[in-house]
Fold:
Amino acid sequence: MTARAIAASAIAVLGAVLGVARPAAAHPLDLGYLRLTADGDAITAVLDLHVNAAARLIGAPPGGALADAAGALADATLRGAPILTPAGPCRWTAVAATSHDTTASLTVGAACPAPVHTLAWSLPFVADARVSPTFQVLVKARLAGDDRVAIADRIRPRIELGATPALGLTAFVWTGIEHIGAAPSQWHDATGWKLPDGLDHILFLLALMLAGGGLARILGIVSGFTLGHSITLALSALHLVRPPARLIEPLIALTIALVAAQAFAGRGGHRWRVAACFGLIHGFGFATALHQLELPTRQLVPALVGYNLGVELGQVAIVLVAAPLLLTLQRHRRFHPIVRGLAAAICAAGVYWLFQRL
Structure:
């Protein structure tokens, strides 16, 4: 098979991959925010979701009137399992739903047998097939006057909130690894192998590698991504810069297209700077999510540090897996059409995601 035929095959394979994958599951659909407040024996739970994720959970068309479906949305989410306390399960009371632009807010009340100081709660909807496989719920609870933070996802659908904070640095490190598509659970589920929802992150790294350079240089470029996250960490922790969330996702897609176009043109300059900007944007994306929980600085800083570390570890793993093949393609001139074909396909994906997210 000639190099051109191999290139055409590679482009066709990547095109098929991008065609069957969801459009990098625009990340706002991957996150929910749950705020719990205990006042004596009463609990108020407020869940914020993207309106499209809420519509999927109740089988409604996007843009429907969610206020009229508060009961159905509550049954599909928060009322899927009872809140458990040492004195027994709580009883559901009032429910209401509203929507604001792209956010649906569900408020559910519960009456418990005794004042609540600790609780356990399973959230089955985080593993519902109608939401993204990477769907996560960021939880902030105020129990007995103290704040608690937790994360629920399809691997950890149960939250347990007690006398000590439920979430540590390790959990946010794993969240960062999952977000970039480097966790094994991103590639395999009960139905078999699948493409990760962090596909846009992976394609960005591949585009950086396609522009050339040895393994040491590539890992150095990846460190620029970490620097971007570190800057975001400081700005976010000090509440100095908080760009609108609706700008972040299109900018991510634009960066993918630009880096891939650079690789297609055979230009490898300034990749470290581009990676740093990409890291800055992604860091703002997750910082914006955490700011929705209104965490105090002492909790926000460890969360962002852990997330950034997880992203860095995930990037290194992806680079080490992909580097042998890509470096081989770059060393042999007859395979250069494959490199350019892959870069063109990634660029096209970035442009598609850009318009899809606007």
